[in-house]
Amino acid sequence: MERFLGAFEHSFWLYDQLRPVHFASTAKLQGSFSLEQLRASLARLQRRHPLLRVGIVLDPTGQPKFVEQWAEIPVRVVTRTDGDQWQQELAVEMSRSFDWRTAPLVRVVLLQAGQDAELILSCHHSVGDGLSGALMLRDLVRGLRDERTEYQSLSAALPIEKTLLNSSILDSEVLGQNYVMESADSVATRSLPHVRTALLSAELTQHLIIRSRQEQTTVHGAIGAAFLLALAQQGETATSQLKCLSPINVRSHLSLSSPEDVGLYINYGLTQHELSSDSSFWTIARSIKAQLAQLSTLQLLFDKLLQRQRFLSTLPEASTVVQAMQQQHGYDLLLTNLGRLPLEQRFGDIHIAEFYGPAVMTGMDQEQVVGVSTWGDRLSLTVLSPSTTTNSESATALLTASLQLLEQFSIHALV
């Protein structure tokens, strides 16, 4: 079975040819399981989520389409030496893209020692988004103890424009004839990024939620304010013009076969902020919330899809797509927040103790990327910084300063 890529999927496919834009998520597990059990669970995962068994091929006119190839999800096994080693392996995963011509467009790293393990799941961005990563890891861990298999056809894994509640205004065909792909290697690479992570205490997580509500904003806004102020403090000018890009989950606008389908179901909102040494933390947080509310409408999603379809109809090369997307979405901070994940944490004797992600990079100049997720009663931060423009000390200082601001304006403000 096969289908053509949707407009957003197509854009990410082209972009990734020159700038790796795959994403990764990490689950820290407690409980014992074998490599054979993991491989069996991965096979069940592919039956449940059809985009995990596809590669991308070009039809005679050069248009890209997903084609089922039923290849096993590869597992890279690493001897686990300590609880922080997975961060080094995450950096390795972020430096390596995918060969889009070869299925599957997902891979797994296993670090294991006794009852402790980490699973890192990486995925090509044309077949999934950050929430997809959490769903895949949940289903993968569930499959270690539950051998029931649910099969879903590729025909059910539709792109955004085919699942919008009122999609009749969107064109069914995007590309014309004789699409010419830019000559490039199918795998792009980058230098190992700096990876920094933090797991907030349950107390700090709860205070952050309460304080954000009191200030009529969101946790997303508060985290954005902390990192934007920390970035401004690292700058050399008195006033900083900073942009924050936030992926927006659009599943509520779609008629999916299941709300837990794996796929690329996001849009983006770019907020702009003028910061100075006396900028108010909560004013910035409220500004992020207000700007994103204006950018999250169904009409804007329609408009973005139509714009993307028209752009793709000009048959752009990969370099043109990279340039256009970087001009349109150029940012200083990428804040990708999955929110509170309402997913099971325990499956028999196996427990998902912690979850980190999503981790992603886009190759923007001076980019800083923060992945946020709340698992149980604790919020985690995964911060990625390019080693080509950021040194190790600056990467650590950014996270440290941001955490201090979050604590200052949540716990301390309530005392």
Give a nutshell description of this structure:
The chain is α+β, with helices and mostly antiparallel strands and 415 residues long. Helices cover 34% and strands 26% of the residues.
Order of helices and strands: EHEHEEEHEEHHEHHEEHHHEEEEEHH
Shape call: globular
Q: Give me the Rg, rounded.
A: 21 Å
How can the largest sheet be summarized? 6 strands, mixed
Low-confidence stretches: 172-180
Report helical residue fraction: 25-40%
Class by SSE composition: alpha+beta
What's the pLDDT, averaged over the residues? 91
Number of continuous helical runs: 12
Tell me what portion of residues adopts beta-strand conformation: 25-35%
Order the strands across the largest sheet as they lie in space: 5-6-7-2-13-12
Distance between the termini: 60 Å
- What is the β-strand count? 15
Topology:
Layout: E1 2-4, H1 7-16, E2 23-30, H2 35-48, E3 54-58, E4 64-68, E5 75-79, H3 85-95, E6 106-113, E7 116-123, H4 130-142, H5 160-163, E8 194-199, H6 202-214, H7 219-234, E9 239-249, E10 266-276, H8 281-294, H9 298-312, H10 318-329, E11 333-340, E12 346-347, E13 350-360, E14 368-375, E15 378-385, H11 392-408, H12 411-414
Parallel strand pairs: 5-6, 9-11, 11-14
Antiparallel strand pairs: 1-4, 2-7, 2-13, 3-4, 6-7, 8-15, 9-10, 12-13, 14-15
Helix pairs in contact: 1-9, 1-10, 2-4, 7-8, 7-11
Description of the molecule:
With 415 residues, this protein is of the alpha+beta class. Helix content is 34%, strand content 26%. It contains twelve helices and 15 strands. A six-stranded mixed β-sheet has the order 5-6-7-2-13-12, sandwiched between helices. Strand 12 and strand 13 form a beta hairpin. Helix 1 packs across helix 10 and helix 7 packs across helix 8 (281-294). The longest helix has 17 residues, at 392-408. The N and C termini lie far apart (60 Å). Residues 172-180 have low confidence and may be disordered.
